[in-house]
Request: fold
Amino acid sequence: MKPSILIFGTDHFSDQNNGDLFMTDKEDMLAKTRQNEINELVTCLKKYEPTKVALEVLRENEEALNDQYVSFAKGDYTLAVNEVDQIGFRLAKECGHKKIYAVDWNGKQDDIPDLSDLGEWIDTDEYKAFTKLAQDIMSESNTYLQKHSLKEFFIWMNEPQNVFRGQQMYMNLALVGSNSNPVGAMWTAKYWYYRNMLIYKNLVNLIDSNEERVFVLYGAGHLHLLLQFLKGSGLFDVKVASDYLG
Reply:
């Protein structure tokens, strides 16, 4: 028997600064219809029976995160308009958890290129291909969410073909630059792959026994790499959204 891990890709409900290159339009997640849909979503996810809830929050902010969560569990905290609160906090409370876990890394390294350096490449075919795909993904996400419930939207967002397109965007970015200054490849390798590898490492560190069932809520752009690393490790029984929302 292996520990279980459920990777659930999400859109960001608010304009939080998570290092995203592109962002979808933001809806009113506090509207009654969306609140009912979030409750339905949490009810579905509760069937997974997670032993831990891991969230896209910097590890160094875990204490502050749990101060908010404990206040929420006591009824003294109003949920913010972000997926960490709206989904993560609610699911953890429904499961009776005493704490939640921050597993993100988003630090600065001297050898990570600044994406502002991409400016000189904006007229190249590689840069245009990267931005077109990114804009197409954002546009399709906006349109789909406007016409569907959150449950339907998350099933769609976590489908393999959409997970692949998210990775394809970063592979397009990796081609931006020249042989002497491969800025896109350096950013993708030294920041994007490195960040996701550290997230993977943080998730592995949550495992205390083979009975562990870890729910992971992360921006959907991370799905391809996190699934690759977790499946490739052979350490987990890896679950996906359709296992519980379908």
